[in-house]
Amino acid sequence: MIKTSRLAAAVKLSLIATVSTSGVFVANNAVAAEESASFERIAVTGSRIQRQDMETASPVTVIDASAIRAEGYNSVDEILQAQPAMAGMAVGSTTNNGADGVAQVDLRGMGASRTLVLLNGRRMVNSGSGADSAVDLNTIPVAMIARVEILKDGASAVYGSDAIAGVVNIITKKDFEGFQLDINGGATDKGDGENVEISALYGFNTDGGNYTFGLAYSDRGGVMQKDRDWVEKGASSFIPTGSLGGKVQDEDGNWVDRTEGYDYTQDSWLQTPNERYSFFANATQEFANDIVFTGDLLYTKRQSEQMMAAQPASVMLDVCTPSSTGNCITLTDEMIAGGISPDDQGRVEYRRRTTDAGNRIYEQDTDTLRVSAGLAGEFDVHTGIAWDLSYTYGKNKAETWVHNSINAKNMEQSVYDNQDAWFSGDPLSQGIVDDISYLESTTGGNEQHIVSGVISGEAFDLEAGPVAYAIGAEYRHDSGYYNPDPVIVAGEGTAAQQDPTDGSYSVVSVYQEVSVPFTDKLTGEFALRFDDYSTFGNASTWKIGLTYEATDDLMLRAVAATGFRAPNVSELFGGNVGSYDYLDDPWGNEQDPQILVNYTSDPDLKAESSESYTAGLVYSPSYIDGMSLTLDYWRFKITDAISRLDVQAGLNACHAGDATACETFGITPDGNLENLTNPLTNVGYQDTSGVDFNLAYRFEGLGLDWSISNDLTYLLEFEQDGIDYTGTIGGMFGGYAKVKNNFSVKAGQGDWSLMYSNRYIGEMDDINYGDTVDSVLYHNISGMYHINDSITASLGVKNFTDEKPVMVASGNEAGTVPEVYDTIGRQIYGGVTVKF
């Protein structure tokens, strides 16, 4: 039955007229403008049931292509992370250390691996540098996006694993006829951070079909920390002249305390360079027997770079004694007078910032291919029972390099062999540099196969309408590998030792959904899914949703669901990784505050479990035409979360006589820490809740067409593994502001439009130091003009008032957290679209 209430009409109208809020308009449910104009049965994100109405129980945010262009976004992660519903610290274009050029999304701050990313309703292969736990959003060019749909409740009962926090469904451009050329670019007002995107779209119709093809090229320039006056100088104890036992030589050759540190900010990016080449295609063809073929293809090559200061290298050197027979160093009278002395094991530490070798330059070359094809039809046109079969293949391959890495084993031997050269403080010879430095090379990848089938239709009619259903089955096989450089595998690098990763798993799933119109006003949605994994076993999940149209103006909605996240390849089969953690040895055997911990994976990990609840309303007041409001409470609880144990607590417990703690962490009762291990286990939990509010209002006034939108998220609680992160920020986990808000107002007439938007991030407390970190408000202005039927031009300014990032004492880069705040500054952008 087709709903024609004022509320339904308002929802459809608002979806057609998507508004931007620095990331755009939040709608009741997701549907394309061209789809909402008819009464064809359509698929809505969060359900596999084909339906005529768009009012489901789940809240969905919709971001369309025009809003993306108006805001000047250059990548999918920028689009998503600007949303108030995002939190935490998803890596992206401003992550210079440790991300390998990857860009991810972190819905509700629950972790990138707990947000499922779909492309045209089907899974996207995990991608990055190898054995990855989430999708690299760089693989999806902005030019191909028709809209982005964000489902903001748990959807494991519909889509399976990874949809604990929600789903991001990226819909690509299709059904296009003609040729379109887009040229977009911009830069900061300081003359750096240049970016350009050139894309071409071509499509044509056939009898019963359409074929759309696209090419896209994008080039993102870098921004250096040294080129921003707000960046405070660093002060590392690793200096280019070297230090021995914490002492350095002065001009007179005396060994004294170090007075100045090395400024590592001079050689680090704030925005990392990135170059991408993409090809994509969509095809739809209806055959004579009413069978419809659909297919899409995406290939992206990413070449990216990060840069950090020269390697800080440290080696422990044996001090010569009368009985020494092997390699050792002799402490001179000047060294001894300066206070240099060996530790209890007869060693002394030598540190050096290896600027003679050059900066650490990280490079990635990744290729990602995804192909999906399906056939759909009806068993009998009279019964309305439809079927859909599809196959999806994804493959990601990556090569990564680190230039000017240091071989710690060679460096140690070189110091023994060339003590005068190393201890003099003078630059090292090219021969020594060639001996200790090397090009670190790593390979990795991911692969995915999915075969699925769905039968859907209407089982029978009730007085209020038909009972609709979908029943399906799916087979999925995921694999991944990661091969570190042989020097790292051997434990001879200055970076910690790491073993290769290689593994795979498969899963067979069956699921069903039912939509029941109990009355004209009350509709129930029910989903049940069973997944059987080759690794941990099986998982069953369910979802119950209710919508109640209280009046023509007001709809109430609620969802309760269970979910799960299966352990990924790196968690199951990841190679052991060494990590130098700051720990206190209760036995007193280890004097160095950094103690080597062996991080291990576990092939016997179980799946994470979750519960999610949402309850809210959609209100479209009859006395104000064009206005709609949504208000939703949400809560997510995760148990058996895959996490690591507290090593310090384990050390203390073992020292106190807890034999189980000693065994768990690989510690001997007498405090031998050579095999200190921290395994992944199902011991963690998360509990987070909050409120989302959205206002959308379209009206005419002063001879102009107006659109106003406001999108607010208020975080009530975020607790993880016994720590309350609500309203806090830190460099290790990002920001969990209590209040995040996006607002926009757009006015236009005929061929032109102007838009002002702002983005607010509320104040937070530094989780390590307790200091209050001030709120920030970013302002953006943009305009668009249709020159004629073929040419459209746009121009805008992001961060119009050039707001500086808020300083965070426990930040992870440049004295702040770049994944939370804008570190680039004022940016001017523009573009031209030409259609033929």
TrEMBL record:
InterPro entries: Beta-barrel_TonB, Beta-barrel_TonB_sf, Plug_dom, Plug_dom_sf, TonB-dep_rcpt-like. It is found in: Cell outer membrane. Its main location: membrane. The keyword Cytoplasm does not apply. One of its GO terms (cellular component) is cell outer membrane. It is a multi-pass membrane protein. Belongs to the TonB-dependent receptor family. PANTHER family: PTHR47234, TONB-DEPENDENT RECEPTOR. This is TonB-dependent receptor. It comes from Shewanella insulae.
